[in-house]
Amino acid sequence: MERYLPQDCWPELSQRSKKSQFGDAFRPQLWPAIRWMAYAYFKRFFLVKSAMEYSPKVVMTACYYLATKIDEFFVPIDDFVENLKSGTPEQNKARILALEPEILRVLKYHLTIHCPFRPFEGHLMEMKRSLLLLNFNIESLRPEADKFFREALLGEAMLLYAPSQIALAAVKYSLINNGKSTEVLRDFVQKLLGVDDAANSNDSRSASGAEAQIVVEKLLSRLEEIVECVRAGCAAVPSPPEQQQLQNRSMVWGTLQSVLETRKQANGSGQREEPVDSDDE
Questions:
Q1: What is the structure's pLDDT at 6?
Q2: Whole-prediction pTM
Q3: Do 71 and 31 touch, CB atoms closer than 8 A?
Q4: What phi-psi label fits residue 179: left (phi over 0), alpha (psi between -120 and 50 degrees) or beta?
């Protein structure tokens, strides 16, 4: 799916040092869910439309404005455009309001976005309840989880995976980055899915211990897949070899432009070129 998304054109994603800059500087401070919703709208919009048709920067700001309305974070349009650093307030207001109906049409009015933040809070609460013998504070996982959610904005994880699974992947990511054993996550998943209860149950309708363990392994594999997907989305775009290829192409293009300008000047001085039949040549 990555090849269908214009990553090199995303206004807040093309440079990692500037990612989420608009959302961070926005006043009043936005809820994390609004940022997640805005990015989801943005990605879904450009799954259908091209960056050659619509300015990604204007689309992103319009998606933010739409997300504030959907999530009931009231911001008048006049206050919203004051957060934009380019263009005049009148121009920005007109562009956003004109683009909003088109975004709604492209999204087919499917505006409900399920974010991973509430599932993450639920996972932390359940871990505190069910894992009583941990030698670290569960709350220490929050900073790395917040980092994971922000990095997840850069890739396609939100389009491919369920929010509850992304939240569990954030727990795994936090455990790894905090130097904790991922066996903590395995124990939690087993308790979360009731694997021990299923394995010890005498009910013939319940899953066997082996079958229940397969479910756990599949989920843990999926969480690893999500973490890798998020990390891949944060990789430099393009890679160094691709950057060199683009630079070489730019040099060739510059040379061609110079030759073209020379030929135009020659034509302007009275010299005419004979027309060339492209089918014969």
A1: 40
A2: 0.73
A3: yes
A4: left
